[in-house]
Design brief:
By secondary structure, this protein is mainly alpha-helical. It has five helices and three strands. The protein has one domain.
Length: about 170
């Protein structure tokens, strides 16, 4: 019986000691990213690209609108021969399809540009999180920006956001 008690104590004692050494941390990666100068530059680049796409789309849309109005006016005045009317109608349809295709291409291009610009920023933040985690001896770091962590006991989890911000500078 004494052997069983000693064995039980020997098994439970390390678990209690191990539970005390486990260290957790938490941060908000979105807060870190938004504060970075690289993020602000990326946002400016994306805005400039978006403006270029919007300008081109507006220019093409204005051209399409003018041609459509002229076509409607010519059709209402009945001044176009049938074959010219059909050709212009086909031109307008083609132009509308090109406009729609351009809009889709612009959207995809913006998405790709955003991913390309954000990848090094995200990597830099993740590297800083890992470095701080290792230096602080943490076994887990929870990212509060993901929104899937319903509860953090701040007495048992260390907020390392300021340490990571310092690492990023």
């Amino acid at each position: 019986m004494l052997k069983k008690i000693v064995l039980l104590v020997m098994l439970v004692l390390p678990l209690g000691a191990m539970a005390q050494t486990l260290k957790f941390g938490h941060t908000n990666s979105q807060e870190l990213i938004v504060d970075m100068p690289e993020f602000k530059k990326a946002q400016e680049s994306l805005k400039a690209l978006e403006d270029k796409y919007n300008d081109e789309f507006k220019r093409t849309q204005d051209e399409f609108s003018k041609k459509a109005q002229q076509f409607q006016q010519d059709m209402s005045e009945n001044t176009l021969p049938q074959n010219i009317a059909e050709r212009r109608q086909k031109e307008l349809q083609d132009m509308g399809q090109r406009l729609e295709a351009f809009q889709n291409e612009a959207y995809q291009s913006m998405q790709k540009a955003q991913m390309d610009l954000m990848a090094p920023i995200t990597k830099k933040v993740n590297d800083a999180i890992q470095k701080v985690g290792k230096s602080e001896g943490l076994i887990y770091i929870f990212d509060l920006s993901s929104g899937v962590i319903p509860y953090i006991d701040s007495a048992q989890s260390k907020d390392i956001t300021t340490l990571i911000k310092a690492e990023l500078k």
